[in-house]
Design goal:
Number of helices: 20
Distance between the termini: 44 Å
Helix content: 40-55%
Radius of gyration: 21 Å
Strand content: 15-25%
Strand order of the largest sheet: 3-2-1-4-5-6
Length: 445
């Protein structure tokens, strides 16, 4: 089985490769094709993968190319993890937004809109090429903003594109752990959009254990989201939000923490990864060891500004191991081998969440088999959550419309309608600022 990884020179590719190395079952991936527009990054990551595979029997064959069509031909699965504009683009997204006093995070608020506007045209081109060159391939999308990009690609690939994210997985794992349950044995009632969802229940042996968690201040204070949001707010919600909802519920505090930070997250990662890729290009360097040390630092500093604003402290060791690569491998196994499983995924709604239309991509538990991912029916969201989901989905639709039409006015509308951008004039200045620093937004007339 052949897996093509788009963004194959990306820093987290070794996580996917490591998961593949541990899979020895029949029908596993036997060939990995890395594609990236940066040949230097491809060489560095290829070196890391070679060191990972050293001594592993039957390791997948790894090749690399900068030719997108060559990478796609013959693929059974396409894993998309591209970053249009690179980390410099992410740092610019943050800087322009913070100068206007609004959030510049890469998937939430103004930064997420800017990232989406320059990513959607590229993702749509990829989807069209997959449809032409590898029509039987399944596309697994991890490119952010994951829900928005998956929806853009689904207009050309239908249900053969599925979005994944590690945030719901990590949240469910943490809740199960503090309740003394095995994550594999728990049913997680999770619903929303990517980076905008809530755990409303966690059932073990037919019993919902979430009320026990919400009633226990000590348990609520024992894991990251409990410390991030506070026990009183979680009890008010009656649910545990995805960590990214901290940007909505505590927006002023989050923006203030980002403004006080010495560097934005994007700027930190840009400098950190520049050192890694420079070091990994040295023929005498231990590329895998350098990658592992860099990754440990990256994971430990994740959402540091939010934790600082909330006084939540450092991340726990169990939360530093990632998880999206496990979701990707489980998804591929379920489809390729008909190993039926349940995963929280980004898929087309198809009536699952009643306020949204059937083509809207949502993030919910899905039953997965050889025919793809099938969203499980969910109870309606409470009004406050429904309002937020509908507002953000409306913004995503304006982003898609702007990317399709090239309309500057529609781009302004997307920014202005977002709950975290509080002024049409700010929206206009954001569009001016982003088009000035991003060549990829030159299409906005």
């Amino acid at each position: 089985m052949r897996l093509t990884i788009l963004g194959g020179g990306g820093f987290r590719v070794p996580l996917v490769h490591g998961a593949l190395l541990a899979d020895h079952a029949e029908g596993r991936v036997t060939r990995v094709v890395l594609h990236d527009v940066d040949a230097g990054r491809l060489r560095a990551i290829t070196r890391v993968l070679a060191e990972q595979a050293d001594g592993v029997p039957d390791a997948p064959e790894v090749t690399a190319t900068t030719d997108l069509d060559e990478a796609l031909r013959g693929a059974d699965f396409v894993f998309s993890a591209i970053r249009v504009g690179g980390l410099e683009g992410r740092a610019n997204d943050e800087r322009v937004a913070l100068a206007e006093g609004v959030l510049g995070q890469e998937t939430v608020g103004a930064g997420g809109i800017a990232y989406g506007l320059r990513t959607v045209p590229v993702a749509v081109d990829i989807a069209r090429r997959v449809a032409r060159l590898a029509p039987h391939a399944w596309v697994i999308n991890f490119t952010n903003p994951a829900g928005l990009v998956t929806e853009a690609m689904s207009r050309h690939l239908g249900d053969r594109v599925i979005g994944i994210c590690d945030s719901p997985v990590g949240l469910g794992r943490r809740i199960a752990r503090v309740l003394g349950a095995r994550p594999r044995e728990a049913w997680i009632d999770y619903v929303g959009l990517n980076h905008l969802g809530w755990v409303r229940g966690l059932r073990v042996d037919g019993r919902d254990e979430l009320p026990r968690l919400l009633d226990d201040p000590a348990l609520l204070g024992s894991f990251e989201e409990g410390r991030l949001f506070g026990a009183d707010w979680l009890r008010s919600l009656g649910a545990i939000p995805n960590e990214y909802l901290h940007y909505y519920y505590f927006n002023r505090e989050a923006v203030g923490a980002y403004q006080r930070a010495e560097r934005t997250r994007g700027a930190f990662l840009h400098d950190q990864q520049a050192r890694f890729y420079a070091g990994a290009s040295d023929p005498g360097a231990a590329a895998l060891d350098l990658w592992e040390r860099t990754r440990a630092e990256r994971e430990a500093t994740y959402m540091a500004e939010n934790r600082e604003a909330a006084g939540a402290g450092e991340r726990e060791a169990d939360d530093l191991s990632g998880g999206y690569e496990k979701v990707a491998l489980a998804l591929m196994r379920a489809i390729a081998r008909d190993e039926r499983t349940t995963l929280i995924l980004n898929v087309r709604n198809r009536g699952t969440l009643s306020p949204l239309d059937g083509d809207a991509v949502i993030e919910v538990p899905c039953l997965v088999d050889a025919n793809g991912a099938h969203p499980v029916s969910v109870d309606p969201l409470p009004d406050h959550a429904t309002g937020l989901v509908c507002a953000v989905k409306a913004v995503e639709r304006e982003v898609l419309a702007a990317a399709h039409s090239g309309s500057r006015a529609t781009a302004v509308k997307a920014f202005a309608l977002h709950p975290l951008v509080d002024s049409v004039n700010v929206a206009r200045r954001l569009v001016d600022g982003y088009t000035a620093v991003h060549p990829g937004l030159a299409y906005l007339g």
